[in-house]
């Protein structure tokens, strides 16, 4: 098992190196950083000085290495657009995105699994058919349309919930949270539903199809043949076996929640890193784009590692060495 | 799923296909959902192709626009000019129905072109990876794995951003559509490559491929004549589902302001414009493009869903 | 024979399809007495397993019992509602599946699978159930049973797993066991052990066994009586001695001929020409007549006679006489 974990960590490191290379190449070759940082009135001497200062005169691998060590320390350079260190901006914006993603992820997983199990067990029932049909619309409905629809209903027509922003936030240390104020919580509702709905639909459909597959297995028929109660068959036997594949995809889905936050944050003008990223693309603010890419890759890779470790917790077949199995 | 179904031996597969063909038509006739979505997609494609003939106005011809017609409500004569527009007009007096037809044209074109691009790229790389093997395969599949870790929409955004950075400012709007196609296409090739590679690995050791090699057929001919036909049905399913995803991806990017420019608005751009009038009460500028996009994405999705079930007997 | 444990009368199972109604089991009648082993033989698709599934109430829809009666221990069970049938499964009717690799839930310890079965049916405490679980494993010959209760299925070999499956089927002390091809998936060297274990345990407890198999060797070794099925119908029913040495139905005779049985002393195997018809293409008259060496006009016109007595009989217009075989 340890060998497996080490192998996975090694693979993750390679992924990060590749992404780092992409980010660095963006940094280095898309638009000239010197051009971007110096104004119109520049002399050849200025350019040379800045080139040396930025290390652009050094060989490519050296520059790449420096970029990586800088990134590891949280140094991503200065935003072209805002003129401030990218790391400062990210730290300021991160809590908004993380809180939104956490709430949405929780909604998506809990409701998604519950509905998936329900629709699998009652697969011929009216309610299950209705849920499946609605979910297909949910998959086809782009996230931004869901957001607009919710805004129209709950902000424009009913006037119950705010349509943009985070509401009031409270600072705890360096973290600004919206969990502690009424307006902060109210502001969270629509964005988190918007962000979670698509993932919830996916998780639900996945749980359903995996569960149907598991319910066909011999050990489920055998469990029935032993006269176990339906509840024990469905939850103790079927659900647990369903979770192994579901965890993989759910892990990836949590990653996409962070990415889809870009859309939700744009619709709701939510001041997180996603909105920052979209603005960076519009203004070709390369340092911010590169930093966002690195940050999100670290998150994805981390989530994937956790998912791999969760397998061991659920499936005993992975826990033992192959040789001991016989 | 598709990958496992590929493990069936060829002889069995081709025999299956014979019986499937009749089954396929039968299933289509039996499925109202499939018929309705197919008809919807067909109508929308026709409307998009013939938009210049169908649209009552050319929304991008400044000469035909009258600012006095701005904010006309649907089916009601305009207070100033007395003109009536089926679906109303936007702030600049552009007929919403016409902008939707032209927008759909761009949405469908970008979606289809992106999928085509992804398909050609994915199939080629998959065939090469599976047939050649070795370090070529390792590199291709590792890149695929890494890319698959990231959501397609994010990859598309990044590519779009980088491409925008490379393009000179004065060409950005003109190039936007093509950049979009490449960005969405590049974000979506992995699935095709994986399925095709899987099938290639299975097929390349079959006797008939060995025989073809012995009589001196080149690798290119073997790949195209012998291996490709075996993967057509999963590729078709992936392509249909990818089309729905590509249409949504394009709309999303355009909605976020990093896609089709206002000079060439797609459905996503129209929704982005319409959102600005949500609070002031001009709902039609937003609603109609949104409903069109939804209908388009939903029908393609339903068609893809049905196709997957129909072509994969194991799931029935 | 005393009051039979299982009594099937005129059982018909139907599956509605878009090509019409299929009858995988048609008008089958047989009894199994206390402590008796009835071997049910036939080619795959002959309806052997379908009849077994009907008895334990696990026909997968749309298959259903269309006609006939099933009595277990003096209770009619074919029309019982889900929950009542559930109580009988495991408690009155146990089942052993074909493949021990897939009949055990891979994620649950075998001790837990045993205790959950007992707790579902017997009025005993958890610690009592745990003690019985160890005893049950000892009984089926698992070495080191006290430690092995904590093992997962993948930690056992195929033969050992089938022992576990038998322990599971017997742990709530049912009066009838349906063993559906219990040795087909096992190594030849293990098959005999499993059969003799099953035989021994059922003899000791007086459990009736429906032993479904296509292997005449297994029948010869374990069964007291045998039921031969062909295309959903019962062809012949009688004691193993009678049926194996003096078959009266031409199909049984053919079946014997195509099985390498040393005791029959034939120097070469002969095969039945053709193949068993598909359920949707049954010939008119006796289902076997197109392949029957003794068929006459009457066989093509009239369906074969049915065996209505659960004790024995032959479904043939022109049953073979003893001399014909000798």
Automatic annotation (TrEMBL), chain A:
Example GO biological process: transmembrane transport
Subcellular localization, as worded in the UniProt entry: Cell membrane
UniProt domain ABC transmembrane type-1: residue ranges: 94-311
Main location: membrane
Keyword Transport part of the UniProt annotation: yes
Keywords for this protein: Cell membrane, Membrane, Transmembrane, Transmembrane helix, Transport
Alphabetical list of PANTHER family matching this protein: ABC TRANSPORTER PERMEASE PROTEIN, DIPEPTIDE TRANSPORT SYSTEM PERMEASE PROTEIN DPPB-RELATED
UniProt record similarity statement: Belongs to the binding-protein-dependent transport system permease family.
UniProt topology in membrane: Multi-pass membrane protein
Recorded GO CC terms: plasma membrane
Domain of life: Bacteria
Protein's recorded name: ABC transporter permease
Organism whose genome encodes this protein: Roseobacter insulae
UniProt keyword Lipid biosynthesis present: no
InterPro entries documented for this protein: BPD_transp_1_N, MetI-like
Segments traversing the membrane: 12-30, 100-121, 133-154, 243-270, 290-314
From TrEMBL, chain B:
Residues annotated as transmembrane: 33-55, 106-132, 144-163, 175-196, 227-249, 283-307
Gene Ontology BP annotations: transmembrane transport
Pfam families, A to Z: BPD_transp_1, OppC_N
Domain ABC transmembrane type-1: 104-304
Compartments where located: Cell membrane
UniProt keywords, alphabetically: Membrane, Transmembrane, Transmembrane helix, Transport
Organism, scientific name: Roseobacter insulae
Name of the protein described by the UniProt record: ABC transporter permease
Tagged with keyword Transmembrane helix: yes
Keyword hit for S-adenosyl-L-methionine: no
CDD domains tied to this protein: TM_PBP2
GO cellular component, one term: plasma membrane
Membrane topology field: Multi-pass membrane protein
Family in the record: Belongs to the binding-protein-dependent transport system permease family.
From TrEMBL, chain C:
Entry keyword set: ATP-binding, Cell membrane, Membrane, Nucleotide-binding, Transport
Single GO cellular component term: plasma membrane
CDD domains, per the entry: ABC_NikE_OppD_transporters
GO molecular function: ATP binding; ATP hydrolysis activity
Protein name: ABC transporter ATP-binding protein
InterPro entries xrefs: AAA+_ATPase, ABC_Ni/Peptide_Import, ABC_transporter-like_ATP-bd, ABC_transporter-like_CS, Oligopep_ABC_C
Bilayer disposition of the protein: Peripheral membrane protein
Subcellular location(s) per record: Cell inner membrane
Stated family: Belongs to the ABC transporter superfamily.
Domain ABC transporter: start-end pairs: 6-256
Keyword ATP-binding (UniProt): yes
Chief localization: membrane
PROSITE patterns: ABC_TRANSPORTER_1, ABC_TRANSPORTER_2
GO biological process terms held by the UniProt record: peptide transport; transmembrane transport
UniProt KW Cell inner membrane keyword: no
Native source organism of the sequence: Roseobacter insulae
Origin organism lineage: Bacteria, Pseudomonadati, Pseudomonadota, Alphaproteobacteria, Rhodobacterales
